[in-house]
Write a structure and sequence with these properties.
By secondary structure, the protein is mainly β. Helices cover about 10% and strands about 40% of the residues.
């Protein structure tokens, strides 16, 4: 082989897209052109092996596999029909045992709706009539009543009563169509009145009277239309009431 022939062979080998495997120690086991699936004697055969691999690589759609739908979630309520129409449903979810509601034939809440604490203790009872809220009673975790709130036309309306956890009445306050109105009475644990607040039609306090343990008025605070303190009367039992002027400030 002449020097020119040797150089030409090397150039052709380097330009070829396939590698030449000629060293058995490298794992080829024979000399030739490395193709897609073995060693070939010619570069053309090795190239064609890659082309066959490419053209034969056709995608086969896998056979459809039936996967059943996931099971439906467990029911949240156990419902039974009411004689007058509608249904009565008891909550079956963990942490809601004891909660229940009832509906009329139209599907509106009708009757008591009970909500419970996670341990099953009663938390709230909301009384409905054909979808309209009536009286709402809240309970402390120990089972005593916390508050009673009457409703009318979707608004708090009537006398709201709030109790301490020991069962004694803390205060009662009157609402008119969702706004405070009339008087609010605050009581000590012995049931004595300690404060009376008179509310205006706009829901702002107009006057507050404070009482001592014997039921005597000891202070009268009046508020202006903005709800700021207008004047304060300090009263000593058995003496003449006297007024003290105060700078305007928002009632806390």
């Amino acid at each position: 082989m002449t020097k020119q022939t040797t150089i030409l062979t090397l150039v052709l080998a380097l330009a070829s897209p396939v590698a030449i495997a000629c060293n058995p120690a490298e794992g080829s086991g024979q000399c030739g052109y490395l193709g897609a699936d073995g060693i070939y004697n010619s570069r053309i055969d090795a190239d064609e092996s890659y082309q066959r691999l490419y053209y034969n690589n056709t995608y086969i759609e896998p056979a459809p596999v039936y996967r059943p739908p996931p099971p439906p979630p467990p029911p949240t309520h156990n419902c039974t029909a009411r004689e007058e129409g509608g249904k009565l449903c008891a909550d079956t979810r963990p942490g809601h045992i004891g909660s229940s509601f009832s509906t009329n034939a139209a599907g509106d809440f009708d009757g008591p709706k009970a909500e419970t604490y996670p341990d099953g203790t009663l938390k709230r009872i909301t009384n409905y009539h054909n979808g309209e809220v009536g009286e709402v009673t809240d309970y402390y975790p120990n089972g005593t009543i916390e508050s009673v709130m009457p409703h009318q036309n979707g608004e708090i309306h009537g006398t709201v009563k709030h109790y301490r956890e020991n069962g004694t009445l803390e205060y009662d306050i009157t609402y008119c169509n969702g706004e405070t109105c009339g008087e609010q009475h605050n009581y000590d644990e012995q049931g004595n009145i300690v404060k009376i607040i008179r509310w205006g039609a706009n829901g702002d306090a107009e006057e507050q009277r404070d009482y001592d343990e014997q039921g005597n008025i000891v202070k009268i605070t009046r508020f202006n239309a903005n709800g700021d303190v207008e004047s304060v009367q300090e009263i000593t039992p058995g003496s003449q009431a006297h007024a003290t002027a105060k700078k305007s400030r928002r009632k806390s």
